[in-house]
């Protein structure tokens, strides 16, 4: 096909998609987008130089942002895993050129996610969520009644002015914000699967993703009684929160699994721990109204992903904090202890035991090499076992069927 005819075809397809993307079913828009991406896969950048420029413009405009994000995800999927119809040299060229687009795309994704959070924070400030005291904040109380772990001095020293949990119960997003967030997180997850993370991931982006992960930390009223009261829309809205949390945890786990240490590694590591600590606080709260632990009402998939995250965190990152004398290791382990014995399922409980095995293996290794810094940690773990285990096992015994047997 002559060059002018190709250019006219590309322009027509682009104009058609932009003009009608809101009026046609999603699958039609997706197929049209796939066609445009296939053309770009062959012609960009030599004969289709404005391919990514057009996509970036769509993703940054409010009325076409969902369309642009869909094209970004499709383009990266097709360009980074091309079919066998391309020559090896073209595949290498595509990978190199697409990698140059990553910084700008990450800025677009971070901008979309941050704008949703900013909009949401204004909504929360104007209309606070109902029953703000529905769940006790155990982070401000003693984790165990007689354990020395209730001291907050270490946390305040480590976190300074950041001890306030930023991940409080959040109302659901509106439909438009939810769609933008899901699409942005899906694009981000696709990127994280193949880019060199240490060169691109920052503490600020990680914090943003953790904020979305916190949407899945709160229980959802999915009981029959709720449905009978005609609150289906409320349940669907809260289900959206869980979906966001699951998608965000997938992104976090992708980062953690790559053993990623960004350029601003000190701030990154501190942020990882702070966010982990706050999410654990949320997940181990107890309901004042029902007396049940929060974890029993959290979506199973979210709990599984969060346990996977804790495993990656303990395996790759926990040891990086030991050089900091103010690191609140005991408080973290106390929360992890509660998280373990509040697991609503056998599989979840066994996964947490595997997590403890990883930590204990590391502890034994350090003690075997003559490191005395962990002597007190070992003593306090024994104290946890002596003072709190019976109560937590009793809680599991009464809350689950069949009961956990030791």
UniProtKB/TrEMBL annotation:
Where in the cell does this protein reside? Answer: Cytoplasm; Nucleus
Q: Domain Exportin-1/Importin-beta-like, which positions?
A: 25-126
What Gene3D superfamilies does the database record attribute to this sequence? Leucine-rich Repeat Variant
An example Pfam family from this entry, by short name, is: Xpo1
**Keyword Plastid belongs to the record:** no
Q: Which domain of life is it from?
A: Eukaryota
InterPro entries (UniProt xref): ARM-like (IPR011989), ARM-type_fold (IPR016024), Exportin-1/Importin-b-like (IPR013598), XPO6 (IPR040016)
GO MF term set: nuclear export signal receptor activity
Q: Identify the GO cellular component terms for this protein.
A: cytoplasm; nucleus
The alphabetized UniProt keywords are: Cytoplasm, Nucleus, Protein transport, Transport
The alphabetized list of GO BP terms reads: protein export from nucleus
Family designation: Belongs to the exportin family.
Protein's name in the database: Exportin-1/Importin-beta-like domain-containing protein
Biological source species: Oedothorax gibbosus
């Amino acid at each position: 096909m002559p060059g002018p005819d190709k250019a006219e075809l590309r322009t027509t397809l682009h104009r058609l998609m932009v003009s009608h993307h809101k009026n046609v079913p999603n699958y039609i828009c997706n197929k049209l987008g796939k066609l445009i991406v296939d053309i770009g896969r062959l012609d960009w950048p030599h004969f289709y130089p404005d391919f990514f420029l057009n996509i970036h413009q769509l993703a940054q405009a409010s009325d076409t942002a969902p369309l642009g994000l869909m094209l970004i995800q499709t383009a990266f999927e097709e360009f980074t895993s091309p079919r066998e119809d391309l020559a090896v040299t073209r595949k290498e060229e595509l990978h190199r050129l697409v990698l140059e687009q990553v910084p700008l795309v990450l800025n677009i994704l971070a901008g979309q996610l941050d704008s949703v959070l900013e909009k949401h924070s204004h909504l929360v400030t104007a209309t606070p969520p109902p029953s703000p005291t529905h769940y006790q904040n155990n982070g401000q109380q003693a984790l165990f009644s007689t354990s020395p772990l209730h001291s907050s001095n270490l946390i305040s020293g480590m976190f300074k002015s950041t001890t306030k949990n930023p991940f409080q119960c959040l109302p659901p997003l509106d439909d438009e914000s939810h769609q933008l967030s899901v699409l942005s997180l899906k694009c981000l997850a696709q990127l994280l699967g193949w880019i060199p993370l240490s060169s691109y991931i920052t503490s600020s982006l990680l914090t943003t993703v953790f904020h979305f992960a916190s949407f899945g930390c709160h229980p959802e009223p999915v009981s029959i009684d709720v449905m009978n009261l005609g609150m289906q829309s409320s349940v669907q809205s809260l289900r959206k929160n869980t979906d966001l949390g699951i998608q965000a945890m997938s992104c976090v786990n992708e980062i953690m699994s790559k053993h990623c240490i960004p350029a601003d590694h000190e701030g990154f590591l501190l942020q990882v721990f702070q966010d982990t600590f706050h999410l654990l606080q949320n997940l181990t709260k107890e309901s004042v109204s029902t007396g049940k632990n929060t974890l029993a009402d959290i979506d199973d998939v979210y709990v599984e992903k969060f346990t996977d995250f804790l495993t990656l965190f303990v395996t790759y990152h926990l040891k990086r904090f030991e050089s900091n004398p103010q690191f609140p290791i005991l408080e973290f382990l106390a929360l992890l202890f509660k998280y373990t014995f509040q697991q609503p399922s056998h599989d979840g409980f066994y996964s947490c035991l595997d997590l403890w095995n990883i930590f204990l293996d590391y502890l034994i290794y350090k003690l075997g090499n003559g490191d005395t810094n962990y002597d007190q940690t070992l003593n306090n773990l024994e104290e946890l076992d002596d003072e709190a285990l019976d109560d937590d096992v009793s809680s599991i015994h009464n809350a689950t069927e069949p009961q956990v047997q030791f």
